[in-house]
Amino acid sequence: PRVAILISGRGSNMMSLIEAAAAPDFPAEIAVVISNRPDAHGLARAQAANIPTRMVDHKAHADRASFDTALHAVLVEEQIDLVCLAGFMRLLTGPFVENWRGRMINIHPALLPSFKGLHTHERALAEGVRIHGCTVHFVTPEMDVGPILMQAAVPVLDTDTPDTLGARVLAQEHVIYPAALRLVVERRAMLREGRVVIDEFML
Ligand code: GRF
């Protein structure tokens, strides 16, 4: 299978996927990295890893629908089977998401369904939760809501700042995102009637 990674920024999760996929036994190929921002740091990192990159600049499109149409065209042109959102900061329209249903996953820096949206580490600290973490989920039209594939939890320490907590979570993101991608590619996890079914025997 051919995987596309969509980014908007620094691309550390993208790198964790590229590095995992470089292993000879990894069952998928990172075929392309697509950014919606020309200045995304991740672009240079992908190029340095010899992964082809494409740009679909949202500023060149009048509205979300035309941006999504252009993005879809690139994915089709690149013969993509599976899409990984990795710090991709654009909301995708319903028709686009529908086209990729069961074939598009995202990583979110919180234990969903808690802390959807932005600034998750600040909010976790403000709420005083003792456990925080990250979630890989299938993408559905509503943001940060899709069926959950994998999660990792980390402790919240009294001394934490958003940065120290975020770094602890990010280290786990880099572990579970490649693992979740593998599950989906090997069809050991799939979307069935809106829920994730995981073949536990093969974990
Ligand atoms: C990560 O925290 C990810 O969970 C969130 O955006 C951030 C992207 O970081 N969706 P990076 O670009 O992968 O370094």
Task: Describe this protein's structure.
This protein is of the alpha/beta class. It contains six helices and nine strands; from the N terminus they run βαβαβαβαβαββαββ. It has helices at residues 12-21, 41-48, 64-77, 94-99, 120-127, 162-185; strands at 2-7, 29-35, 53-55, 82-85, 104-108, 131-138, 148-155, 189-192, 195-198. The two termini are 20 Å apart. The protein binds 5-O-phosphono-beta-D-ribofuranosylamine. 5-O-phosphono-beta-D-ribofuranosylamine binds next to α1, β5 and α6.
How many helices? The count is 6
Give me the side-by-side strand order of the main sheet. 3-2-1-4-5-6-7
Fraction of helical residues: 25-40%
Q: Separation of termini?
A: 20 Å
Q: How many beta-strand segments?
A: 9
Query: Which percent range describes the beta-strand content?
Result: 15-25%
What's the overall average pLDDT, rounded?
96
Would you tell me the structural class of the helices and strands? alpha/beta
Instruction: Give the uncertain stretches in residue-range form.
Output: none
The rounded Rg comes to 16 Å
What sort of overall outline do the alpha carbons produce when their principal axes are compared?
Answer: globular
Ligand catalogue: 5-O-phosphono-beta-D-ribofuranosylamine
- Main beta-sheet strand count, sense and barrel state: 7 strands, mixed
Order of helices and strands: EHEHEHEHEHEEHEE
